[in-house]
Design a protein that fits this description.
Elements (H helix, E strand, L loop, with lengths): L2 H17 L12 H8 L3 H13 L3 E4 L3 E4 L5 E3 L17 H8 L4 E10 L3 H6 L8 E10 L2 E11 H4 L14 H7 L6 E9 L3 H6 L8 E9 L5 E10 L3 E3 L7
Parallel strand pairs: 3-10
Antiparallel strand pairs: 1-2, 4-5, 5-6, 6-9, 7-8, 8-9
Keywords: DNA-binding, Transcription, Transcription regulation
Pfam families: GntR, UTRA
Protein name: HTH gntR-type domain-containing protein
């Protein structure tokens, strides 16, 4: 039998054990020697099988400690909650903070603000003229002190250039409220969801393990004149997030 078929068989058996719950998150995978004996294969075949499972994001190989089933504790995200009413003190409803605190965990973020010529896809979504600038608010968001996801929000500079959106720091009442005060209440949004492998920069910022894909959630907000006033791009490691939409029939 071909070696490729052998390593795929070994990988399939370990994969089945993980999905069946026989190997739970955090459990140690049998050693290479144990897998060699159990399947009657060479060490190289076992290593090829483990490499495949690692690339799928199912296991984590730790030097001198062994191989373990990756921990999976997805954060439930509800994108439709973004426009829930403000509280009595005028503070925005932060879907990320709410999701984290609902699980008894701690949320934090780092914010960087700059004026940029946005990527072509963002400029197109914002219907910007060639060379037009945007304000981008970049967030690296943490759960229990660990990098969890990123959120980059782009706004046309000509709309928000003199507002808090263009200045560093958090905005307690939220950028959406500032847009509303500027006369650009968002009345509808379009969401796009896609999946891909992370860039090297994303892998570094989010401290991703090899083989971890990301979900990219892109939201475009439009005002009453159907002018796009915001593009928000979230990069969500697929093993850490569950995205849930609820739709009601009218």
């Amino acid at each position: 039998m071909a070696r490729s078929s052998l390593y795929q068989q070994v990988a399939a058996e370990v994969r089945r054990a993980i999905y069946a719950g026989e190997l739970a998150p955090g459990d140690q995978i049998p050693t290479e020697a144990d897998l060699m004996e159990a399947h009657g294969v060479s060490r190289n075949t076992v290593r090829l099988a483990l490499g495949e499972l690692e690339n799928e994001g199912l296991i984590l190989r730790m030097r001198r400690r062994g191989t373990f089933v990756r921990e999976r504790r997805p954060l439930l995200m509800r994108p439709q909650d973004e426009f829930l009413p403000y509280d009595q003190e005028g503070r925005r409803f932060d879907t990320f903070v709410h999701a984290v605190r609902s699980e008894g965990r701690t949320a934090d973020q780092r914010i960087e603000v700059s004026i940029v010529e946005p990527p072509e896809d963002v400029a197109t979504r914002l219907a910007l003229a060639d060379g037009a600038l945007a304000v981008v608010r970049r967030r690296l968001r943490f759960v229990d002190g660990q990098p969890y996801n990123t959120l980059d929000s782009y706004f046309p500079l000509e709309i928000v250039g003199d507002s808090e959106i263009a200045r560093p720091g958090d905005i307690t009442r939220g950028a959406n409220r500032v847009l509303e005060e500027l006369g650009h209440l968002q009345v509808r949004v379009i969401d796009d969801l896609s999946a891909r492998m992370p860039t090297s920069d994303e892998s570094s910022r989010l401290q991703l393990e090899p083989g971890t894909p990301v979900v990219v959630h892109t939201r475009v907000g439009y005002d009453a004149d159907d002018t796009p006033v915001r593009v928000a791009v979230s990069v969500l490691p697929a093993d850490k997030h569950l995205i849930r939409y609820e739709l009601e029939r009218h």
